[in-house]
Specification:
This protein has 282 residues and is of the alpha/beta class. The chain has 11 helices and 8 strands. The longest helix is centred in the C-terminal third of the chain and has 23 residues. It is globular. The relative contact order is 0.14.
Length: 282
């Protein structure tokens, strides 16, 4: 089927008090696994390409984007393409021509005023090109003499009043909120601030996004969706599944040299994890 639009999937999920899963992809095996897992679950899904993934692919967006688009167009469930954690304006401007309907513009490393100015400019450009845009806001450092603080650092939180002003003044379509997760967690030990989430959901009129979801236990994820999260980003969980399966296969088959033998095992492990997480999200 034709490529779906991320904004439509997320808006529909938010209206239904559910969430759409967005999986970060690095290889073609990631792409195929996410689509296969979504088809098995009968659920829509978002394929995300991060700026770091583009750097890994020699700085070239199109090879992975074209493969993802081809797989999405042959899927039996709605699949959208999203450009994730973009800091480069040059990369942002490649999104429309590469099949992406949405982008997450990440200026969260900057002090609040600079984050707002950069995000507003990105949102104006993105909307002129028909792109849905997500941004990120947490307890941004650089205030009162404090050093810059990653919005996902332990203890960082998104302030509801600041978030409301940020969304209104920037014009973004969705906001990634810091409620207790961090990126690249390899253990599922994150404890979410559900009271803060409730206040954010009651204050903001745009869909809320949860980053760093690989470190969140199933029960916490379910509660987050109930509390107002409409887009759930997952990356590390797929890499854990893939790497673990490949390690086990190569340990059992040290003679293996054909990459298809172990990549297929890694791909199937990711299919299982995608299917499982989509079940958790309902």
């Amino acid at each position: 089927m034709p490529l779906a639009a991320t904004g439509e999937l997320v808006t529909r999920a938010a209206a239904a008090r559910s969430a759409v899963a967005a999986f970060n992809i690095i290889t073609l095996e990631h792409v195929e696994a996410v689509v296969a897992g979504a088809e098995a679950a009968g659920a829509p899904v978002v394929l995300q390409v991060s700026e770091n993934a583009v750097k890994f692919r020699y700085g070239r967006l199109l090879p992975l984007a074209r493969g993802a688009a081809a797989a999405a167009e042959r899927a039996t469930v709605p699949v959208a393409l999203h450009l994730d954690h973009v800091q480069s304006d040059d990369l942002l401007r490649q999104a429309p021509g590469a099949g992406f309907s949405s982008v997450m513009y990440d200026a969260s490393r900057l002090p609040y005023a600079e984050n707002l100015a950069a995000t507003r400019a990105a949102a104006e450009w993105a909307h002129a090109k028909g792109l849905w845009i997500e941004a990120e806001l947490g307890e941004i450092g650089g205030k009162n003499g404090r050093p810059p603080l990653d919005a996902h650092a332990p203890g960082a939180r998104t302030d509801p009043a600041e978030a409301q002003a940020f969304v209104t003044e920037s014009g973004v379509d969705a906001l990634a909120v810091a409620i207790g997760t961090t990126h690249a967690m390899t253990e599922r030990t994150a404890a979410l601030d559900h009271d803060l989430l409730k206040r954010l959901a009651g204050t903001l009129d745009v869909p809320l996004v949860l980053h760093g979801s690989s470190g969140v236990p199933d029960g916490e994820l379910t509660a987050a969706v109930t509390g107002g999260i409409a887009k759930v980003n997952v990356g590390t969980a797929l890499n854990i599944a893939m790497t673990g399966a490949i390690r086990a296969f190569l340990a059992a088959h040290p003679e293996a040299v054909d990459s298809r033998t172990y990549l297929s095992v890694g791909r199937e492990a990711m299919v299982g994890e995608v299917h499982r997480l989509l079940g958790v999200l309902g």
